[in-house]
């Protein structure tokens, strides 16, 4: 969104609104920074990329479409005070659904580094939002506060979070978040429904009872066969990979990806999933083609 207006978001969402989505998920990316030497010879952190704030984007979406916006609330780049301010603003605007995640490392970091005075893990960020729902703010001696009413989601990984040592430990971390107050789970993208079904089964066996929403992303170009597994730590099923390797153009790959997602969605719906969450990546065309055939 760097340097772009809200119209670019409307251009993404307008083609999809005929399907009456129950909510629109709003991702958030940290500002990036580099270290520059100042005239005194010292290095200073300099922000090199700014994006519109999540609060403003959500408010614009709700105002235009009258549909719930679900902002990503991330640990990286924020102090606990800044997080509280953002959550207060969201609550004031009537934006009461959240997806709480740790967030990715900054591009200049080899591993995630918390902001000084900020949260290191998603569960700590979750607990802050839960406390605000209970009317407990950072300054606990304040008495004239109004409790928030957030419905709080967390992320789940059918193929395991890449930093977790094993799936059993990853499920434990997820169970801890649910026990701490998470109301629902949205999964990372997957291309093999059996991985989602197995993930749900393991979650239920571990005592997780909240809704688990499947996350779906259509493949839209030939490069995705390599970039998506590397960036998101997911597998491309052999049949899908073979189809993608057989095509010679991005348009042909797009058609393969759409057809694959259509079949994915049909199977998920047959298994009575709560809903299907699409990762549009600012590209509404493939999702519109899929939803037109499925719903």
What does this structure look like?
By secondary structure, the protein is an alpha/beta fold. The chain has a domain of 150 residues: TIM Barrel. 41% of the residues lie in helices and 16% in strands. The protein contains ten helices and nine strands. A hairpin with a 5-residue loop joins β2 and β3. α3 packs across α4 and α9 packs across α10. The longest helix has 21 residues. The model has no long low-confidence stretch (mean pLDDT 89).
Short description:
The protein has helices at 7-13, 54-65, 80-92, 122-133, 167-180, 193-205, 224-232, 238-246, 250-270, 284-294; strands at 23-26, 32-37, 43-49, 68-74, 97-101, 151-156, 184-189, 212-216, 277-278. It has 295 residues and is of the alpha/beta class. Strand 7, helix 6 and strand 8 (212-216) form a beta-alpha-beta unit.
């Amino acid at each position: 969104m760097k340097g772009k207006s809200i119209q670019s978001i409307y251009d993404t969402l307008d083609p999809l609104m005929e399907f009456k989505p129950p909510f629109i998920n709003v991702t958030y990316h940290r500002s990036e920074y580099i270290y520059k030497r100042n005239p005194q010879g010292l290095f200073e952190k300099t922000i090199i990329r700014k994006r519109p704030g999540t609060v403003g984007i959500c408010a614009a979406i709700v105002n235009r479409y009258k549909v719930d916006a679900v902002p990503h609330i991330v640990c990286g780049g924020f102090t606990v005070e800044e997080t509280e301010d953002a959550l207060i603003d969201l609550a004031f605007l009537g934006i009461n659904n959240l997806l709480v995640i740790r967030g990715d490392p900054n591009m200049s970091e080899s591993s995630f580094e918390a902001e000084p005075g900020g949260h290191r893990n998603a569960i700590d960020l979750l607990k802050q939002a839960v406390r605000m729902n209970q009317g407990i703010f950072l300054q606990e001696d304040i008495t004239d506060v109004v409790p928030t009413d957030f419905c709080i989601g967390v992320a789940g990984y059918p193929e395991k979070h890449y930093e977790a040592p094993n799936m059993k430990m990853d499920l434990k971390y997820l169970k801890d978040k649910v026990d701490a107050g998470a109301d629902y789970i949205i999964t990372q993208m997957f291309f093999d429904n059996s991985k989602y079904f197995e993930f749900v089964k393991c979650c239920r066996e571990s005592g997780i009872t909240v809704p688990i929403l499947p996350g779906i992303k259509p493949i839209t170009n030939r490069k995705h066969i390599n970039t998506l597994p590397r960036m998101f730590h997911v597998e491309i099923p052999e049949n899908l990979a073979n189809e993608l390797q057989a095509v010679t153009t991005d348009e042909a790959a797009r058609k393969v990806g759409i057809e694959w997602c259509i079949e994915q969605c049909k199977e998920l719906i047959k298994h009575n999933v709560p809903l299907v969450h699409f990762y549009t990546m600012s590209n509404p065309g493939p999702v519109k083609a899929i939803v037109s055939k499925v719903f």
